[in-house]
């Protein structure tokens, strides 16, 4: 376990269940004596890959969850898990203690929150988990202040499977005096929470982490395509690096998705990865750092999407190694 006080492991699920059981047995319905709420009403805006998984884990942790998604078909299955499916963002956030946004980008967050703000309870907490630009964080934090929200800049690390397992790493920056209220939410969706000082700091760390993830993804994709083009058995390459410092579980996972034709459903879609690559490149430009890999990586994702792989897992960067109509390895998959 980390000794860093800013890194807090989530309370175990059995401990959470115990608290719920004790509270419901004592008839308190989750309200603690100090007025803080263990069982919260949460409005989740955006039930894509990540939002749907987070909503399910919030329900499992005993919270009352209302969900809204632009395409209703992605929100409706959550009714079977116990969510209330709301027809509008406003309905999803009405009376919510906490509002979570897990949308595509900053523009989508602003559009959706424009509808949600008037219906929200004054003093509610906004957990903004969409990966957005640094300027977006500032703008959204200002919007939150204008509308009486306590704003938490809260991007997450981890993809579909950790999200479904409630094992995300939550990067969180927001008002220290409201941390206790939002901790049950982070415990429900994550394995640990990394606390940072100011809104913006969490998104900066998220962009740094994604810079590494995207670079690894492209490195694996290019290495696989080169091996195939040179007639090198990819298994030989994987054997050569096995167990050494160059070996990497992430490389094996992503290469395995391409070779096993398992790019759908995506854990992290090509189009979303391109958006993140451009956020990273822009952040670098603004801070005087040249990020050649991020720029080139964004172009690989763009080309893969242009070839029709936009909804596939970002390991489909592999396809960008080939011309679309060339009779290459990509066409045989
Ligand atoms: N997947 C990952 O591994 C991962 C990991 C960490 C962080 N993230 C970040 O988390 C966020 C969500 O990612 P995801 O993978 O869950 O993506 P996703 O499955 O594509 O979900 C995106 C969501 O945004 C909604 N949306 C897009 N544009 C919108 C608009 N203009 N107005 C309203 N709603 C809009 C989509 O609604 P529709 O269903 O109607 O399209 C969907 O609910 C992104 O910022 C991503 O960078 C993703």
Automatic annotation (TrEMBL):
Region Disordered, residue ranges: 1-36
Keyword Oxidoreductase: yes
InterPro entries reported for this sequence: 6-PGluconate_DH-like_C_sf (IPR008927), 6PGD_dom2 (IPR013328), 6PGDH_NADP-bd (IPR006115), HIBADH-like_NADP-bd (IPR029154), HIBADH-related (IPR015815), HIBADH-related_NP60_sf (IPR051265), NAD(P)-bd_dom_sf (IPR036291)
Extent of Low complexity compositional bias: 1-12
Transmembrane portions of the chain: none
Residue intervals of the 3-hydroxyisobutyrate dehydrogenase-like NAD-binding domain: 200-317
Coiled-coil regions listed: none
Residue ranges constituting the 6-phosphogluconate dehydrogenase NADP-binding domain according to the UniProt record: 41-195
Keywords: NAD, Oxidoreductase
Biased composition (Basic and acidic residues): 18-35
PANTHER family given in the database record: CYTOKINE-LIKE NUCLEAR FACTOR N-PAC, OXIDOREDUCTASE GLYR1-RELATED
Family designation: Belongs to the HIBADH-related family.
UniProt name for this protein: NAD(P)-dependent oxidoreductase
Organism in which the protein naturally occurs: Paractinoplanes pyxinae
């Amino acid at each position: 376990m980390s000794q860093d006080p800013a890194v807090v492991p989530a309370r175990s699920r059995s401990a959470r269940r115990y608290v719920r059981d004790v509270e419901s047995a004592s008839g308190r319905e989750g309200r603690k004596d100090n007025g803080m709420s263990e069982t919260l009403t949460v409005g989740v805006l955006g039930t894509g890959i990540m939002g749907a998984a987070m909503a399910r884990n919030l329900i499992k942790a005993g919270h009352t969850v209302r969900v809204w998604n632009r395409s209703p078909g992605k929100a409706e299955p959550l009714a079977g898990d116990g969510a209330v499916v709301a027809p509008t963002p406003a309905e999803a956030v009405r009376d919510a203690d906490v509002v979570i946004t897990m949308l595509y980008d900053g523009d989508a967050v602003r559009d959706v929150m424009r509808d949600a703000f008037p219906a929200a309870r004054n003093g509610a907490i906004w957990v903004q988990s969409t990966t957005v630009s640094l300027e977006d964080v500032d703008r959204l934090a200002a919007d939150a202040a204008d509308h009486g929200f306590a704003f938490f800049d809260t991007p997450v690390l981890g993809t579909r499977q950790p999200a479904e397992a409630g094992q995300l790493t939550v990067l969180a920056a927001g008002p220290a005096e409201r941390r206790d209220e939002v901790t049950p939410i982070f415990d429900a969706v994550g394995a640990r929470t990394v606390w940072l000082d100011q809104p913006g700091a969490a998104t900066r760390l998220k962009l740094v982490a994604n810079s590494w993830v995207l670079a690894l993804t492209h490195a694996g994709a290019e290495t696989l395509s080169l091996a195939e083009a040179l007639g090198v058995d990819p298994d030989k390459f994987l054997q050569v690096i096995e167990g050494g410092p160059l070996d990497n579980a992430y490389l094996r996972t992503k290469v395995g998705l391409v070779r096993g034709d398992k790019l759908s459903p995506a854990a992290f879609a090509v189009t979303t990865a391109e958006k993140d690559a451009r956020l990273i490149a822009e952040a670098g430009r603004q801070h005087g750092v040249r990020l050649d890999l991020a720029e080139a990586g964004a172009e690989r994702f763009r080309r893969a999407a242009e070839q029709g792989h936009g909804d596939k897992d970002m390991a489909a960067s592999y396809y960008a190694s080939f011309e679309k109509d060339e009779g290459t390895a990509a066409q045989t998959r």
